[in-house]
Structures are given as C-alpha cells and as structure tokens.
Design brief:
With about 450 residues, this protein is α/β, with parallel strands linked by helices. It has twelve helices and 14 strands. The strands form four sheets. Strands 2-10-9-8-5-3-4 form a seven-stranded mixed beta sheet, with helices on both faces. Helix 1 (about 20-30) packs antiparallel against helix 9 (about 310-325), helix 2 packs parallel to helix 9 and helix 3 (about 80-105) packs across helix 5.
Length: about 450
C-alpha cells in the first residue's frame, strides 16, 4: 500500500490538502483541543464555533487584504448554489435602485412607483454573462431558467468564446469584441451585473486578470454594472484587488479546504440595498430563498442555520498555513509558486507539440488546470498515458467526462516535487511515444 508521500494526486476537486492540515484535522475530528468532543460534534452556536468562524474570516481578510467595504460570508450550496444566489440577490439590488429612483420622482404614490418599476423590469432589465467555459455557461443557463417567468432575452451573453474557436471553449477573445450592455450614461439600458468565471476547470481557461472594461472608477459606480466573479478554482492562488468587485465567491474544495463550505465576499452596499420581499412579489420577482439571502446570512454571522464548523476550521488551517509559508509576501508568494509550477508543466507540453496539444490558446492558459490531448486525442494513446501514469502513482489525471483528454490540476496544495515528478513522466512518455499506426492496403 503506497504512503501519502508516494502518491502525487492532481484531481480537479475535491483537491489535495496540505498533509499537516490532514494530520491535524484527523486529531481534531476525534478530540478537538482536549475537549473530549469531535470538532464535527460541537454546537455551531458555541463559543468555540464562533471563534473558529472569526479566526477563519480574519485569515481570509489578511490574505486577500479585503477592505472594510466588503463582508465575508460562509454558506452552503457550493459554486452552483451561488449561480442562483447571485441572481436572486442582485436582481433585488437592481429593483431597489429603480424603486428609489421612481420614488424620488413620484413621491409617495406607491402604486405608480410599482407600475413604473414593473415596466422598467420588462423593458430595461438585463444581466451580462461572459461565457468562456462550462461553468460560466451553466451559470448563464441557471439565470435564464430562474428569470424565464419574466420573459425572454433578459440574459445577454456578451461573450461566448466558442464562436471564435470552432464551437469549442479554449480562448478569451479580445475585449473589443464583447457585446456588453451599454450603460445608461451611454444611451443604453444598463446591466444589473456582469458575471464571469475567473478560471474554468473543465476547459483549462483562465482570465489573466480582471478585464479592463470591467474596471470602473468610483465616480462612475452608480451607473456601472456590479462585477461578479466565480473564483472557485483559483481562489487564493494569486493577488486580487477585492475593491473592484461587488461579489467574489468560491467553493472550498479546490484551493481552500473540503466540500460543504462556500465563501462569498460581497460589498456591504449590496447587502444594504435590497428590495423588500413584498415589493419583489408585487412586480412578479421571487425573493431570495432564506438560505441564499446574503443579507440574512450576514446579519446572522453566517450562522442562520447549522454550518459545518469542521470544514470551516479546515479552511482556516489552510489559510493560516499560507500565511505562515509566505510571511510578508502573502499571496504574492503563492502566486509566484503557482506560476512556477504551471510553467514547468507547460514547458514540457510545448517542447513536444507532436505528442501533446494544449487545449486552450496560449493567452488563456489556466495555471490551475492544465488541459491537453495526447496525439490529437487518440483514445488508445491517452488510455496508455493514464495507465502508465497510474503505475507511477500519478493520479487524478483524467479530463472531465464532458471533454475527455488529460487534465493536470495544479492547485495550491500540490507540492512542487509532485509537479516535477509529473513533468519528468510527461517528458519520458513523449520521448517513447510513437504515432498511432494506421492500416494499409
């Protein structure tokens, strides 16, 4: 039976955890800090649980340098749950802004205010989605499904990268080709928000940084769409200017911890600018389900219902480990390491272009999920690649079932030594690999 040190695991999620966290977690699961109780057993209302929440939140704020303008929430539902939560909460923000505008013009004429907002909802309301991979596509489809009772055409897919890549994901076209909804200042209807997925795990596509066209000046904040980013799979792998986002969310099971926890970083004015449930219902809009209501979760310190305290503690241990490892460098140190590991892998792939074909274009390559084909996607060659890798205890390399191929996930907890081991195997395989034989007459 192989030891943990002998196995190099590159699974896309759940992902590897630092071994010290696993070992400490094993002890905490049996007897947390000599309390005689498992960390999975203690009350989420207890002083211990509240301290764990506070400590984990503090570590995240330190790592990402989260400003006072934003709050941190711990939620259920994973990234997929936030596909819905984003729509519920931010539609409510849009409605409340329009209600206040109407009230300023019409005064206390409640019915006229209601009719005006209802009319604007039908005619002006838009959500912008940048679709660069499977997860942003699913998010846009969920938004369309939730809003279908209000009518068609409310979701503006401002970018579908398949259209410039023979029907496949793998590129991020230049921003001047995107079809974002024009702002009201520019004579358009304005969008309630712009949504994108920072790193697409299935397709190996990552935005190099926040798109320039989504960087809005503070003076233009009221007319600018709220920027929402799904960072589930590259969370804490590089520095992020949180102040430029209205919402950042991520499931924990890639770079942060284990499943059960979703982290949401949300601007506080989003929490305070929410239409009442009665007004939303009167204009035909669903109010957020209570477990997905960001204001409710924030008001209750993320403890509206029973949270998985063990999972939150694990996330905190991972974060404190990053702080201890990189010291004053913080996420800059982790970013350097992530870039170095990714370069090692891509350098081997690029050195053998006849054997390996990287799926995404060079400018859109993910540092977290390195996706490639062997011999143009030859099924036999890829099966052999995976079998030989497994024999060397290189595991978790099979591409997503929807696209196939090979995927090396390079998350934070994957050690540099494992990446070097993987690179050596890739080089050895390429040197021994021969083109598939074709039949002859």
């Amino acid at each position: 039976m192989p030891s943990r040190e002998e196995v190099a695991y590159f699974g896309a999620g759940p992902a590897p955890l630092p071994t010290p966290v696993i070992e400490k977690g094993a002890a905490a699961f049996v007897n947390f800090e000599d309390t005689g109780l498992s960390l999975a057993e203690i009350s989420h209302r207890s002083q211990t649980a509240n301290k764990i929440l506070a400590d984990t939140k503090s570590a995240l704020i330190t790592l990402l340098q989260i400003p006072d303008s934003h709050d941190v929430l711990f939620m259920h539902g994973g990234g997929s749950g936030e596909f819905s939560a984003v729509v519920f909460n931010l539609v409510s923000v849009w409605v409340e802004k329009r209600r206040k505008e109407a009230e300023a013009v019409l005064g206390g004429k409640e019915q006229e205010v209601l009719e005006r907002v209802k009319k604007e909802l039908r005619e002006d309301f838009r959500l912008d989605y940048l679709v660069t991979g499977s997860w942003s596509l699913k998010a846009s489809q969920e938004a369309a499904n939730l809003l279908e009772p209000l009518g068609k055409g409310l979701i503006n897919v401002a970018l579908d990268s398949r259209q410039s890549n023979d029907g496949k994901f793998g590129t991020i076209p230049s921003e001047d080709t995107w079809k974002l909804t024009p702002s009201r200042a520019d004579g358009g209807k304005g969008s309630a928000f712009v949504y994108y997925c920072d790193n697409e795990t299935v397709d190996g596509v990552e935005f190099p940084s926040l798109p320039k066209c989504l960087e809005h000046s503070p003076q233009n904040q009221d007319d600018s769409p709220l920027v929402v980013a799904d960072m589930s799979s590259n969370f804490l792998s590089r520095r992020v200017d949180v102040s430029k986002y209205a919402v950042i969310f991520g499931g924990a099971q890639k770079n942060i911890g284990i499943t059960d926890v979703t982290l949401v970083i949300v601007r506080k004015d989003v929490l305070s600018t929410q239409a009442s449930s009665s007004f939303l219902h009167a204009i035909g809009v669903w109010s957020p389900p209570v477990v997905f209501s960001w204001p409710v979760i924030a008001k209750n310190n993320s403890l509206y219902n029973t949270m998985p305290i063990f999972s939150i503690w694990i996330a905190g241990e991972v974060m404190r480990g990053l702080l201890a490892t990189h010291g004053e460098k913080g996420l800059a140190g982790q970013e350097d390491l992530a870039n170095r590991k990714a370069k090692i892998l891509y350098d081997v792939l690029d050195r053998f272009p006849n054997v390996y074909q990287v799926v995404p274009s060079r400018l859109a390559r993910s540092r977290m999920n390195i996706c490639f084909r062997v011999r143009g996607g030859d099924a036999t060659q890829e099966k052999t690649f995976l079998e030989y890798a497994e024999a060397q205890l290189l595991q978790g390399l099979k591409g997503h079932r929807s696209v196939g191929g090979i995927r090396v996930s390079n998350y934070n907890a994957v050690p540099l030594t494992n990446v070097e081991k993987m690179a050596s195997y890739m080089e050895e395989f390429a040197q021994k690999s021969k083109p598939a034989q074709t039949g002859s007459n």
